[in-house]
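Q: Structure tokens for this one, please.
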Amino acid sequence: MTGDLVSTLRDRVEMEVRKHQYNNALFWADKVISLGGGQPRDVYSLVNVLYLKGEFHRAIYYLQTNKLNTTVYGVYLVAKCQAACGEWSEARETLESHPEPSLSDSGGMTENELLSSVYLLKGNVYQALDNHQFAAQCFKMALKVDPFCVEAYENLVYNHYYTGKAEGDLIVDTVENSESLFPAEREIVNYLYSGMAKKYHNQQSSSIPTSLCSLSNNITVLASRAERLYYSCRFTTAYETCLQALKVDPYHLPTLLTHIGCLYELGKKNDLYILGHKLVDLYPKSYMSWYAVGIYYSLIKKWENARQYLSKSTNLNKLFAAGWLAYGHAFAAEGENDQALATYFTASRLLKGCHLPLLYIGLQYGSTNNPILAEKFFKEAIALAPDDPFVLAEMGSLYTQTGRWEYALSYLQNALAKVKEGGHEWAAATWAPLYLNLGQIYRIAKQYDQAIKCFKHAQFLSSDNSTVYTGLAFVYALQGDPMLAVEYCHKALDKERQDPFTIQLLEMSLSALALTSLSDDGKSDKSDDDSVSVTGAGITPNLQQYSTPIF
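A: Here is the predicted structure, written as tokens:
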């Protein structure tokens, strides 16, 4: 009779938990312990209910008084409760006393499930204590023991513990070579994990396997697709994909991160304002909420407010890469180079597998006229992400500025090739500086036709940029065509009226044009001044002093 009653009450406890009526579950779980003679399974059941209620120290007390705090599962639960209270040092000490797992006290889990859970908890504890090397090792072990442990994989990927190549190797090691997965399981895990990996390492999106076509509108697949489009500078398409994903789950963090980036790139101030307020109202303790607010203030160029909210976001999540970078940008935008560098260095220290902090450190040193250090950090960024066209383009720009033309041409051409082969939106205004720098190099190499093509591409991508028109005017002047040079000088000055080089170029082109007109009308003899010929070709010697980059 008692046995049947205990079994019935155990079912009752499970049902109350499913109904989220934890007080009911706790009341009957306590009675099951008394009626069942204090069996470990019943104590664990009560402790789990206490954990769900947030009564963590009470849960620890029950484990200690029932002498279950020395079993593997008991130690795991004690450390889990300590971690939930923020007692990270105590949780580490508890876990370090962990004996070898055994099925006899696994709380109903398999040995692999228990072992993976312990490694995952260790990783979270070490991560909270800023021991990121040990944390990464624990997350990797959790994933190796149980390839379905998504939380471990997300920690490794989203916290940038590994480079893009290392993430690919991790998938091969823990998923493709796993003996615990059936073929169908291996296929879905491999596909989903590959989609979640770094997007700038491999811009080509992988097609959905035929057997998984029903996942095409799944939130994880849509989020990965949107992020890949974002990194390819296809912001409008990425934005549309984000809207599709947010209809499935309006508070999915990876999708929100990409969506916020798209709103910023597309200049949608009102939408970003509304989103930020909505997130803060619903999730005031979420780092993503304050990140959205900080990005809004960055968009309207209120940098002090942006720094305030981005700082709050990074305090809530110390490993939030986008938050750290945006925080650094908010300093750099107002010329506060020391603070910007300090922020980027902090991000680089925390995010070992992410090349973006190194890229922006290089940009800061370049902006302060320190090309040696800029080159050093660009090279480190390239070592982490050799296929990212942004890094290659910045390295080419640096070599252009320092007059190392052959290196500059090599890196810029490589960057352009990566843009075209990697699925990037080549027509995005983002790539206008790339074509501008290529135009400079071709102009310096006296390959004027190629230079004109590059400047024309830049004009198509960024028609409001005065530098594009000045570059074209310069090339036409060097070719001895003062009429076109004058035309493009006027277009450049229409965008930027006070540019001294364009003004000087216009004056010289007008002089050459006047001399050419006089020569055509037969009204003047050849000038004795060799610096300016009647054909206009003599304009070249006077302009060669500007053969170094001017843009």
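A few notes: The CA atoms of residues 136 and 455 lie 47 Å apart. Residues 523-551 have pLDDT under 50 and may be disordered.
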